[in-house]
């Protein structure tokens, strides 16, 4: 019995020349992965920054408002914290106190050790967070009334994130250039195209995050 072989024709218009297959070398794929991780990390950090900024602009009170606070405490004020030669060591607020929210309009800071109350109060002042004015309530508690942000305050919040957006764009472009220099790719190579697409995609993400914040804050 004879067999008849049938050959199915394939349109050459759907084929990609071997020289143009995206990132065919192991080295370029590894560098692409490194670059993407770096860019993604930067953009995700910025996304979180803008989310926190939007909360402040909309008057939502959360403990995260006090995230920038660093408290200088003596070595015996908190176990595990050692006094530095300069007279103190800055630690995160949550290491020496809890932060709660009352009625959605006030932050309450309760220190673990009442001897650190003055240091915590001073640290909150020194953090220079807009509209944050600590008020001593008792030997272990500080209250911070949080007023609704004004139009000017919302604009200032947006402007600050604008500056950070440009910093992230610069960081992405630097990573792009670093990857290109490492590969020493030829002009018009598929690698140059793919790395450029990668940078453009993450810069577009930054632009969109900032645009969303602008809309949320009502900034002009």
Task: List the main descriptive attributes of the protein structure presented here.
two-stranded antiparallel ribbon, 2 domains, 220 residues, 6 strands, alpha+beta, Topoisomerase I, Chain A, domain 4
Walk me through the structure.
By secondary structure, the chain is of the alpha+beta class. It contains four helices and six strands. Helix 1 packs antiparallel against helix 3 (151-183), helix 1 (26-57) runs parallel beside helix 4 and helix 3 packs antiparallel against helix 4. Residues 1-21 and 76-88 have low confidence and may be disordered. Belongs to the RRF family. Keywords: Protein biosynthesis.
User: Whole-Å distance between the termini?
Assistant: 81 Å
What value does the average pLDDT take?
A: 83
Count of runs of 4 or more consecutive helical residues: 4
Tally the beta strands.
Answer: 6
The CATH architecture term of the largest domain is Orthogonal Bundle
Main sheet properties = 4 strands, antiparallel
Overall geometric form: elongated
Q: Radius of gyration, rounded?
A: 27 Å
Question: How many separate domains make up the residues?
Answer: 2
User: What would you call the structural class?
Assistant: alpha+beta
What strand order characterises the main sheet?
A: 3-4-6-5
H/E series:
HEEEEHEEHH
State the CATH topology of the largest domain. Answer: Topoisomerase I, Chain A, domain 4
Low-confidence segments, given as residue ranges, are 1-21, 76-88
Q: What percent of residues adopt helix (DSSP H or I)?
A: 40-55%
CATH hierarchy, class of the largest domain: Mainly Alpha
Quaternary status of these chains? single chain
Please state roughly what percent of the residues sit in beta strands, choosing from under 5%, 5-15%, 15-25%, 25-35%, 35-45% or over 45%: 5-15%
């Amino acid at each position: 019995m004879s067999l008849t072989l049938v050959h199915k024709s394939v349109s050459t218009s759907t084929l990609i020349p071997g020289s143009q297959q995206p990132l065919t070398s192991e080295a370029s794929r590894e560098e692409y992965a490194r670059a993407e991780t770096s860019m993604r990390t930067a953009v995700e950090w910025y996304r979180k920054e803008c989310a926190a900024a939007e909360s402040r602009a909309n008057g939502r009170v959360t403990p995260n408002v006090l995230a920038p606070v660093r408290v200088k405490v003596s070595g015996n004020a908190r176990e595990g914290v050692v006094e530095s030669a300069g007279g103190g060591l800055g630690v995160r607020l949550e290491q020496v106190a809890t932060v709660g929210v009352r009625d959605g309009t006030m932050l309450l800071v309760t220190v673990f050790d009442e001897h650190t109350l003055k240091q915590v109060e001073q640290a909150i002042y020194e953090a220079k967070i807009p509209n944050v004015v600590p008020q001593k309530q008792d030997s272990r508690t500080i209250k911070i009334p949080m007023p609704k942000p004004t139009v000017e305050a919302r604009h200032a919040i947006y402007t600050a994130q604008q500056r950070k957006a440009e910093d992230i764009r610069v960081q992405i472009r630097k990573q792009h250039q670093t990857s290109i220099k490492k590969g020493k790719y030829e002009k018009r190579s598929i690698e140059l195209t793919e790395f450029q697409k990668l940078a453009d995609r993450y810069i577009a993400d930054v632009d969109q995050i900032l645009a969303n914040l602008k809309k949320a804050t009502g900034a002009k």
